[in-house]
Amino acid sequence: MSLQTKQVRVLVLNDMEQLGRTLFRLDQGFELQFRLGPTLQGKHVHVHTNYPAPGKHFDRHTFQALAWHNPMGREDDSDKFCTLDLQIAGSYQYYFGHGHEEKSGGGYIVVDPVLRAGADNHHVHLDCITIQTYLSKCLGHLDDWPARLRVAKESGYNMIHFTPLQTLGISRSCYSLADQLSLNPEFSPPGKNYTWTEVGELVQKLKKEWNMICITDVVYNHTAANSPWIKEHPECGYNLVNSPHLRSAWVLDRAIWHMTCNMADAKYAAMGLPAQVQNEGHLNAIRSVLWEQVFPKVKLWEFFQVKIESTVEEFRTLLTEGAKPDQKKTEGKQGLKIIQDPKFRRFGNKVDMDSALETFVPHSRSPQAILEACNWLWGRLEEINKEQYQQMLQHQEQAANCIVGNVVYERLADHGPKLGPVTRKDPIVTRYFTFPFEEKSLEEDLPMMDQPDKASHFLAHNGWVMGDDPLRNFAEPGSNVYIRRELICWGDSVKLRYGNKPEDCPYLWAHMQKYTEITAKHFAGVRLDNCHSTPLHVAEHMLSAARAIRPNLYVIAELFTGSELIDNVFVNRLGITSLVREAMSAGDSHEEGRLVYRYGGEPVGAFVQPSLRPLVPSIAHAMFLDVTHDNECPIQLRSAYDSLPSSAIVSMACCCSGSTRGYDEMVPHQISVVKEERFYPKWNPEAKASSPGEVNLKTGIIAGKLALNKMHQELASKGFNQVYVDQVDEDIVAVTRHCPSTHQSVVAVCRTAFHNPKHHQYRKEVPPMFIPGKIEEVILEARIIDRQAGTYKKCEKYINGMPEYTVEIKEHIQLKDSGVVKHAGVTSKGSSEFVQEIIFERLTPGSVIAFRVSLDPKAQELVGVIRHHLIQFSPKYKPGSLPDQHTPPILETPLAQIMSKLTLGDMNMLLFRCDSEEQEDGGGCYNIPSWTSFKYGGLQGLLSVMADIRPKNDLGHPVCDNLRQGDWMIDYVSNRLVCHSGALGEVGKWLKAMFHYLKHIPRYLIPCYFDAILVGVYTTALDTTFNKMSSFVQNGSTFVKLLALGSVQMGGVGSFPALPPLSLELPDVPYRLNKDTGKKEQCCISLAAGLPHFSSGIFRCWGRDTFIALRGLMLVTGRHLEARNIILAFAGTLRHGLIPNLLGEGICARFNCRDAVWWWLQCIQDYCTLVPEGIAILRCPVVRMYPRDDSEPQVSGTPSLLTQPLCDVIHEAMQRHMQGIDFRERNAGPKIDMHMKDEGFNVVAKVHRDTGFVYGGNRFNCGTWMDKMGESDKARNKGMPATPRDGSAVEIVGLSKSAVRWLVELHKKGLFPHSSMKIHRDGKEVKVSYEEWNHKILANFERNFYVSHDEKDPNEKHPDLVHKRGIYKDSHGASSPWCDYQLRPNFCIAMVVAPELFTVERAWKALGIAEKKLLGPLGMKTLDPDDMVYCGVYDNALDNDNYNVARGFNYHQGPEWLWPIGYFLRAKLYFAKKLGKETYEQTVYLVKSILSQHYVHLERSSWKGLPELTNENGQYCPFSCESQAWSISTVLEVLHDI
User: Fold this and answer.
1) What value does the mean pLDDT take over residues 1368-1397?
2) pTM of the entire structure?
């Protein structure tokens, strides 16, 4: 049995869902399944991805279509999926569409790389990474690198990040590269010329011998301003030739440069502006110079204005020549259009003359009229030029603000560089453009922008823009960043201009791709420098080239987008593995702890997740650093004492962690990536503290960092992936990392020191801590201490740290040997949880202590035993499992074996039973005070809730609280079953034995293991259940199986048998001992009509509901014996030729419905058809509870009970109808119905002599399923049926036709003894044959029920009442004739049971009308919305004076009932097949699409059922049963038909 279960993630596709900003991360080896959401089921969906097909190379622009798999056949799309086996790291795009829609949704997936190190090439998990950054230029000659890099190895790091190793530009910034292809020559000692080969050899040596992975930066956004190649290829930057939109910004830049020169030369002294800016007055003087001298001189607005004189003259000429506007261009719309000059020359903008001719039209061709039109245009152009002038004033205002703001930071601010006087070396602001020519006056500079050979070398510098959209390129047209001086400029670098594709700048793309390939060849990963400003399409292209060389490329980046969603765009498009996050961003310890919680891990005690589960969005994997290499030094911002505790907090995060070289040595300043030229110290174990060029374990916090890095790597490699952060007080953060298989924990308690303890008053009392479990050891305790080694003095040659601090550290000691802990006492928290109270003695600011904690030995053993017994459900429980030394006998048998003895009736008890069913047994569903009760007493009640809690790890949920607080729920689950005999009691005992272990483990683990046990039991129960059902269910889809569970949900046996007794001669009838009498009694399964309202007592069983539901819930699912028993039990209650509506155990039966008997007969027919040897039921004995109409109910034990074969009972029912049924209900009056009027108790059901139609009822009763009786005195509808449907209801005619046709066929085969019925008519006994009856219905049906398009149809008795044509009437011969013509869904039933009554084309069109008018999301409207009494919202509590709605009078007058949709869809499928293959296939897809809504509802419903009805448009109806037998049944029948 493999421990590594294949991990499968399911991505559900929903129409129009664009997930480009949602991050989905997966590991290599995972399988990704795409499944259809409800909006796509039933459609021809195609899924495309650029993940390479097997044997193919990745190409971002090549997409393959994925093949669909439907493992369970074709009845629905619930299990249909296409799959990707993810074996290659990178970022991949997918999209999907349907029909003619090529792309109706899409997104990305990111597959993480697998990193390896060591001679054995072992896997380094991403969360194991501990990284240290080095400024490459500070490493010296390559020969010296091992001695300097050894510091990282000895400090416990396993990854090194090098800043770029290429030749640097003139500024010496690590990120301004002069040549991307050449190795920095400084790395070669005199006489040697090292190349990338030697670098690659060193990287390999570090990987194999030191287990160290190396990555480096790639810089795509800019190159050094002095790069030789940019001079040869100026087209690679933004210059004034290829980017003329920057001309005005260049002019301003030159003017500001000359302002710098004038300030340096003291030319503004008279204006109060010296070279040395020192105060607010000088800043105001800068503004004055800008507004009075600079801006007026350069007149930047002219670059965006129109030359009015020449433009108006051109317009005058056109008018004089009689020119007309081109209507194709103007479309007759007025409005002057200005065309921007593509070369951005002064007054270069043009007027679109067609728009001018359309807008400024002279009233005649006279010179005066033309002059007026020209003047009109002149005035508009002056307005436009003024608008451009005003716009430029706003730009200049912003430019002045930005210039002054820059001066304040660089020259006045305490936290700035304090540059001193303005000089040509330190200008007032950094120049925005290169100027590689001799300096002259501004007047001499400006003409150069019109000389292409010079203008092409004025290249825009790069930088960053605060608050800008990172997805926008600020150097492209449309951006005003350069003119508004909003760029924080890097004057040493030129921004690179790639264009949209390699053809736009071939040299640049080729050059940078070669640079990328060199890097990928030698390094395991890259850091994307300035990622947020790098054009995404460029980075995509380059990383694809890198991954072609190194498929498992590790990619990190630091983004400054300010938005997680925009971060995700970069992560998705580029396949970034880790985003750099920094602890220095936290303002206090509380925020630092929050970052640990944010950046990874599950909560402690998290639930065990299934290996196949939904793909959920994630946050980007974090590389969490205590400080990055280009940020300020923490010692300056916090205190030296905080270096260790903040590092410890970072190390405890469940993600990559790391630092930058210098932090551990306590260098008290930022190591500048631009100005730092000193070397890093080398490693020397014997070095003295005062030696600036050497370091060892006694230097700074290196010893502490070594211990922390080892601990970080151990925690990740051993699966400590659960995290808990406790803010003990304002300075102390405790971080717990927990392993879910061994239940070991590591608890690090860190006392931060954001303020120097020498100057800040910290609290003396440290709160005690309570750590659950047994402390095995102190992994480390460390604190920063002062030492006598001199004070810090900056070394000229080496980057030295502060010698006056070091770490005092102890590792792997016993608690009693701790110098930090004063006392550790063991307390018992309940019978099963041991807690150690820790009182601290020397947890001083700047100190850390980490404990290794196990469960106490007994709890550890019990958890191991629980895991051992759970292995039968999944191999994932094997780690941490222990064999059970004293296994109770019940646990020695696999649960599946115990469950195999359960009946499906037992499964009803195990899985379901709502509160009223439970109360009937003296119990009830489990209730959590201040929350709610579970929907079921059985496992489904719990599992429905856990299904929401588990994926979110919502351990704060009231259910989890209840489990932690006590054993009540645990006892409820087992005790409810133990009291039963047989296999059900055995399952209870099995649970009780498992729960005995569960109760004695720590309470925080109980929710996790309680859920694991229940999931195992539940899935085993489901497997057993489906194995006891038909092959249709066993081989069916998830949807089919969920629906089939409705059979178990509705089919059960209560304390009191709901069905009357069957004949003692009948074989295989189930029996039990009565709890009260001890006597043997029958215990046949009955079907509840709906939950929770119709589930128990006399209101559980209804004839109509039972037999509408029986085919789907019992016959289709293979429960033939139970179906037989139900059919025969109801047969025994036949009276007056009718089957009871309310069964009331037969004794309290009401025979007030005209349709139940026909549904019963339909079920007998279905039984004979679907069940092997099913015809034998006709000979089964039926015990007649009412031998005569006037008999009292004959109960079991009554002497001389009448018994007769079922075929005779059927014949009696038919004969009684043909004779005519006419009686008054027994006990008529308020005793049996407090609302019905007296006439309503008169029941009539007869067969029309001429048509053969069954008819009956009156306007005071309602004998079909639409049986709402008015209840409101206020609205005066009490005692009036809302839908009497008297006359011949269409579905009863269909059902009776089906029954008669079937009996005719049976008789012909010699399987039914009766060919005709004897009746008395006009005082004579006559015979009416079944064949004659069958023929009459067939001959008369369409004549009387079809509403023809022919307005003169002779068969139409009430043409004035027709309001829709091409439909079938709801009834024929109603006492209120207009009711016949109401459009309702009932004709669909007749179409399914007696399709021979319908002409195919008419039927198809009528179904189309029903689809358009009646079809809702889940159900069918019960009345045409065009009908004047339609109301789609059912509110049974509303009692007002509205006759049509009071007290739910509109129950069947609009609300959307679910069960008719099954018949509608089955009818569609039947007649579509008659119309040909194409129509049928289209219909199948329609059906799948409609049923997808039911699947989603069923999946999400805590009842795991389909409701009785919804309000209009599928809205939830609070008065509906949450799960209704016939709703589930008829949907299942549709799937069976497909």
Assistant:
1) 97
2) 0.89
